[in-house]
Amino acid sequence: MTWHLKEEATLTSGLRAEDLVQSFGFPLWIAKILHHRMQHWGDQSPDAVKRFLEPSLKFLPDPFLLPDMDQAADRLAEAVVEGQKIAIYGDYDVDGTVGSAVLRRFLRGLGVEPVVYQPDRQKEGYGVNQAAIERLIEGGAQLLITVDCGITSVAEVERANALGADVIICDHHEPKDILPPAYAVLDHKRLDNESSIRSLCGAGVAFYLAMATRSILRDIGHFDPEMGGHKEPDIRELLDLVALATVADMVPLVEENRILLRAGLDRLRRAPSTGLLELLKSAGVAPEDVTPYHLGFVLGPRINASGRLGSANAALELLSTTDVAEARRLAEHLTGVNAERMRLQGEIADQALAQAEEQLALYGKDLPAFVLSADDWHEGVIGIVASKVVERFHRPAVVLTFGTHTGLGKGSVRGMNRLDMLAALEACAGLLAGFGGHKAAAGLSVARENLEGLRQGFAAAVGAQVEALAGEGIRVLKREVAVDARLEEAELTSEAVELLDRLGPFGIGNSEPVVLLSGWKISGSRTLKERHLKIQFTSTKNKNLEGFWANGVGRLEVTETSEINVFCLPQFNTFRNRKTLELKIKDIRASKSETSH
User: Fold this and answer.
1) In the prediction, which pLDDT does 593 show?
2) Cα 341 to the chain's mean position, in Å?
3) What is the pLDDT of residues 198-227, one digit of tens each?
4) What is the pLDDT of residues 413-457, one digit of tens each?
């Protein structure tokens, strides 16, 4: 791994880091971190900085800016007013499950009880299933709303239309050349989307539909008490769900997502929904201590585990209920299912990592991507396993299982950096029975006889992207971590870290900053759970600090007498309302180790 200090950013607005110090009262090292982030903003003005630092709901873009939102909100409002039967068809992963719960709770708040259907991952697979659509319409559904799926379901929507039902699609995946002939197609990745709404998850799109529909109902007097109107629902009560999906689905934490996450975290800490409160209790997390980490790595996996190892229905019911006893029972069930998921995942990950080592030995260390497979790997965890392979070897991975009755291998692909996984799969389209997804993650199916061809074709497609980026001076397969700023001992204060916290929440699209502390020594360390390290540091001026290094066991190569460079994020560790300053460690090197510029 190579570390390098970021060069000073140049903004089109001419705004300098020193200007941010003057305007916003930041220490210079924090101003440099913010200044680097501004390079990637369209608007680089002081007003844009203010909106970034104060992500208020009032800055959310108008949902009616999305193509087809007028039609979608009008149609849903019509169904509510006329008492039509509404069906929600949601994907089985955390985003689809949460998005389905968002719409279900919104409609329940209007006095409407929708039918919610989620396909079985093993039996039906991803996407809209025509047989299920037919059953829903036969059961009386007049309006179907898809959540986190449907953008490529042309034939299925045509069938729904033929049977007399209208379809609203709420999706955020990449559309193909022809959009489904739905009553309304809500997807900000449509080519004709000219709005600033560009990065929502599926649950976020569903939330925007709820916002727009409430606006329509308000305009037509549906909530007017003098007309005997229905009580207007407070959709802010749904924000904790939206925040969960936003982090768990790994969409960029910028613009509207940043606003939704900040508001959702606030809601989760102060007044969480019944289901999420019981899930937090089951996981041993106090609501006031919740961070994006808990959304992505504690709550998200528990919600996902339901659909991975069986039916997603338990998670949906948990997120929908207001009954405490029912929520507690479902939360404990999901925690148990997640434990089984972790056991299975660990076994399969060990096998996949060993197989990746074998491919490196066979094809050489310059192999740009893996295609790994087995007959008995559980389909529900292969996406997570693919992520583990990428994390270990720093290159894209396809993980496939052939253990299905269809005779096809089903797989997940995970990418990294600027590599486009969807484009790599498109280059192999002739070998695939089907595929779809994002640039960073996708799903696919392939016949066994095409496995070796896929292995070669996928590696070649990724290799071509790697070579093209190398021509731009970007080495994607080399581990490089950029250091935002050097930090002097006197600058590391609790007040400064409080200010640094204003740049969060951190995650995809707004990555955790990394600072360099030099001249410290290790005064002690201890191992936690056989994998992690708690390390005590002492400065040359006898200042003491503690740091946490996740998976740091075996990586500490300096002695307690060495002066060291610590690459870290200074942050507060909050436990039961008690905050202590702690370093989140990324790496530790002897001071003589060079950091490139």
Assistant:
1) 52
2) 19
3) 999 999 999 999 999 999 999 999 998 877
4) 999 888 999 999 999 999 999 898 778 888 999 999 999 999 999
Give, as one character, the DSSP assignment of residue 298. I
Residue 134 backbone phi and psi in degrees, to 5:
-60, -40
What does the pLDDT average to over 57-66?
A: 96
Give the pairing of strands 578-590 and 564-575: antiparallel
Half-sphere exposure of 450 (CA within 13 A, CB side): 19
| Helical axes 130-138 vs 154-162, angle rounded to 10° | 20
DSSP of 493-553: -HHHHHHHGGG---BTTBPPP-EEEEEEEEEEEEEETTTEEEEEEE-TT--EEEEEETT-T
As a whole number of angstroms, the distance between CA 91 and CA 306 comes to 12
The residue whose two tokens read 């434990």 is: 339
Place of tokens 């008490």: 225
Q: Which of 508, 525, 488, 460 is nearest to 251 (CA)?
A: 508
The answer for residues whose C-beta is within 8 angstroms of residue 446's C-beta and 6 or more apart is 400, 408, 409, 411, 431, 432, 433, 454
DSSP 223: T
Query: What domains, with CATH codes, occur in the chain?
Result: 63-335 (3.90.1640.30), 365-470 (3.10.310.30), 481-590 (2.40.50.460)
Does position 597 have pLDDT exceeding 50, yes or no? Answer: no
Q: What pLDDT does residue 404 have?
A: 60
Q: How many CB atoms lie within 10 A of CB 461?
A: 22
Average pLDDT, the chain: 91
Report the distance separating Cα 160 and Cα 146, nearest Å. Answer: 12
pLDDT at 529 over 90: no
Per-residue confidence band for 596, with pLDDT thresholds at 50, 70 and 90: very low
Q: How far apart are CA 324 and CA 332, in angstroms?
A: 12
Contact 149, 132 (CB under 8 A): no
418: Cα separation from own chain's centroid: 17
Coil, helix or strand at residue 136: helix
- According to DSSP, the residues that pair with 170 across neighbouring strands are 147, 186
Give CA–CA dist 32/18, Å, rounded: 8
177: amino acid identity, one letter: D
d(CA 106, CA 92): 19
* pLDDT tier, 121 (very low <50, low <70, confident <90, very high otherwise): confident
Reported confidence tier of residue 178, pLDDT bands at 50, 70, 90: very high
Residue 312 has pLDDT above 70, yes or no: no
Q: Could you give the residue ranges of the DSSP H alpha helices within 197-238?
A: 202-219
Percent of the chain residues past pLDDT 90, beyond the cut: 65
Buried b (16+ CB within 10 A) or exposed e, 43-76: ebeeeebebbeebeeeebeebeebbbbebbbbbb
